[in-house]
Write a structure and sequence with these properties.
It is built from three helices and 26 strands. The longest helix has 12 residues, at 12-23. The chain has a six-stranded parallel beta barrel. The chain has helices spanning 12-23, 115-123, 214-220; strands spanning 6-10, 31-35, 40-43, 46-48, 53-57, 60-63, 72-73, 90-91, 95-98, 101-106, 110-112, 135-138, 141-151, 164-174, 191-196, 199-201, 207-209, 224-230, 233-234, 240-242, 250-261, 265-270, 278-299, 315-335, 342-360, 368-373. It is mostly beta strands and 381 residues long. Helices cover 7% and strands 47% of the residues.
């Protein structure tokens, strides 16, 4: 299809021709698009709107640093404005997978977002649109990412949006410390998600489970639910998060047998009064933390905009945190909203070597706690 794969020539048009050829096949036919090893394919934004598709990156797909090589697309329907505080449109992801069934990204190679150009533009306040995610499956049923390295993303590395059935297995995410909003994997209004056997370094949240923001998130009405994050290794980054965008609701989530080193926090729950929604039935079980700031970080007034009295306050309900061990500057901080912000929590078998114990902004209603080191602060319940 004419791609050079030399890391200098822009290959977008050639890749688009390959996608068009695959699109000409019957919908039920198996399709494969290969980026062979030994080549670096420089490209702007790409869209794969196909079913029964495997994209095999054996070499490297590298994002262009020319912002005009990225399409401008509508803002996501569950968000009023972009994270970069601009209205729509936004830059399309380097690789968008849209609306297909049975789609996979694999191959053992690398997808590199050339994020340094975007981070500099963001920090210099030179962007007029939201930065592009690296890989963004949207409205896909049965999406899998495996044996692939995602690095230097301009924004989120992997952002499944409104997908049903997502498997992330054996994925490496590598973003430098301190780079803005470079989350690892962010399921957003997704259901039936498994993230396992992966290794993540990020400039922000390692994982952040989201469900839209404000009235747009409420109206979109697609909660994130039935999500398992297990047997992963997390290096630098902000932690295993839910939120802060919780407007559509998040429920039935489990983080099991994960290790973190040099992370800001292990458990990380955040939202704002104006966001609404909240979380229900969330479990963190089996976390090992080395050199963190917090073992548990809860903030229900996280980077908030002006309050919206028409949206009910969010609630963090039925949260269990157990079998946590390690070292941190502080065992935990609970910034719950007063009058029922945090309800029916269980804290048990938590052993954290820390300089500071447990602090809270408002008590947790219906707390059960046992086998905690340091000892629980009785004023928090």
């Amino acid at each position: 299809f004419g791609a050079k794969g030399d890391g200098r020539t822009l290959d977008t048009a050639a890749i688009v021709r390959a996608v068009a050829a695959a699109s000409a096949l019957p919908a039920e036919a198996a399709k494969s698009i290969l980026f062979p090893s030994g080549h670096i394919f420089l490209t702007g934004s790409l869209e794969f709107a196909l079913s029964n598709l495997e994209v095999a990156v054996e070499g490297e797909v590298m994002g262009s640093t020319n912002f005009s090589d990225y399409d401008l697309v509508d803002a996501l329907p569950s968000y009023p404005i972009s994270q970069d505080h601009n209205s729509q449109p936004r830059y399309a992801a380097l690789m968008t997978f849209y609306g297909g069934i049975n789609v996979s990204l694999t191959g053992g190679g690398v997808v590199d977002g050339s994020g340094f150009a975007w981070w500099h533009a963001f920090d210099s306040h030179k962007l007029t649109h939201q930065r592009p995610p690296l890989v963004e499956p949207m409205f896909v049923s049965n999406f899998a990412a495996s044996k692939i390295t995602l690095r230097n993303s301009a924004y989120y590395a992997l952002h499944p949006y409104a997908c049903t059935g997502v498997l992330v297995d054996g994925v490496t995410v590598s973003n430098p410390v301190g780079t803005p909003n470079t989350d690892g994997i962010d399921p957003d209004s997704c259901s039936f998600v498994v993230i396992r056997n992966s290794e993540i370094s990020s400039g922000d949240d390692h994982i952040s489970i989201k469900a839209g923001l404000g009235w747009e998130g409420v109206a979109f009405a697609r909660p994130s639910h039935d999500i398992l994050v297990s047997d992963n290794i997390f290096h630098v980054g902000a932690g295993l998060a839910i939120g802060s965008e919780t407007s559509g609701g998040v429920y039935n989530v489990a983080f099991v047998n994960n290790s973190l080193d040099a992370a800001f926090s292990a458990v990380r729950l955040k939202t704002c009064p104006s966001y609404g929604g909240g979380i229900t039935n969330v479990t963190y079980d089996g976390l090992e933390l080395t050199l963190g700031d917090y073992a548990v970080f809860v903030d229900m007034r996280y980077e908030c905009s002006a309050p919206n009295a028409s949206i009910p306050n969010p609630v963090f309900r039925d949260v269990t945190i157990r079998n946590v061990r390690g070292a941190a500057r502080q065992a935990g901080t609970f910034g719950c909203l007063p009058d029922g912000g945090c309800v029916d929590w269980v804290l048990e078998a938590i052993a954290v070597d820390s300089l500071q114990g447990w602090t809270c902004g408002a008590p947790i209603d219906g707390l059960e706690q046992s086998a905690l080191r340091p000892q629980w602060n009785s004023s928090c319940s």
